[in-house]
Amino acid sequence: MSEQARHENENHEHHIVSPIIYLAVGAALLFGTGLTVAVSYIDLGVFNPIIALGIAVVKATLVVLFFMHVKYSTKLTKLTVLAGIFVFLALIGMTLADYISRAWGRW
Amino acid sequence: MSDSSAVHGAVAEVHPHEHPSYQRHHFETIEQQFDTTNFAMWLFLLTEIMFFGGLFTAYLIMRNWYYPAFVEASHQLNVGWGTANTAVLITSSFTMAMGVWNAELRRKGGLVLCLVLTFILGLAFLGIKTIEYHEKWEKYHIPGIRYSESAFLNPASDPEVHKSYPDDKPLAPDMAAHTEMYFFLYFAMTGMHALHMIIGIAILGFMIFRARAGAYTTGHVTFVENFGLYWHFVDIIWIFLFPLLYLISRHQ
Fold this sequence. Notes:
The complex is a heterodimer.
Chain A: H1 3-13, H2 19-40, H3 47-67, H4 75-101
Helix pairs in contact in A: 2-3
Chain B: H1 3-14, H2 30-65, H3 67-74, H4 79-104, H5 108-138, E1 141-142, E2 146-147, H6 150-153, H7 159-164, H8 173-177, H9 179-212, H10 222-247
Antiparallel strand pairs in B: 1-2
């Protein structure tokens, strides 16, 4: 590790997230909850689950980045989180590919 | 250079400067120790994501197979309780994040207050969940133990839900039987989530005592920080469970 990279890491460690950011993120999460409930009362057909999951992904991203400090973490932590999400999506994708294609052409 | 001075030099290299008492001797710096524990905590959380991922995938596939059953079964859930619980859990995540902040600034009183608030909000979540589970028990919607399909064979027999969802049609008996799968997944997913909450609340109780003794306000915030990661992770699981179980099937 170069001296500069080490220095950057140390800067990351000592970052203390301010309560104002926590308050803003908490308020955004509560707003997102209200929004997703409000949207669920409107009939948007196939877009209801898509919008609901979209809002959930935004909320989860806010939690990961700010409450869980990943925005201020080392590259190792960022890579770990991204690798986890990637493997999770790959496993779901492969499972669905199996369910979709197993009876292919036999319906 | 003699052998003895070489050994002395090696010792000086291992301990080049003063370090805090909570730094384990196998770490070079306190930053390295923090990085390592943070990395380890995230690896644990990844295994948890994979564990819940299996349940989410099962829900996705079953919902596609038995769509009418899953839609009508989800109408049995109370959106009001679900929304209240989401708000409670998000607020508890906020108080937990503030707890980490207080620990970092070595504010003992603030840390204890935040941990107690998180503890209370966690119990409030479980209390609301208990009300919901009790309702399922009373309405015979406990799969495998105490189950009745009557509300799905004849929606009018459940006037409360029928009033909110007047378009619900009676399901054919074979499809009505699959509503039990919805409730099985509902209890498996919310139950595993609740188990994580119970474990978290137990650890919070332990932490409150330790925090009152000043254990986390010495600059060594690793335990509070990593518990915070766990608590926020449990929050994220609920952020996905809530729309999937309560909201996405309100129409059709």
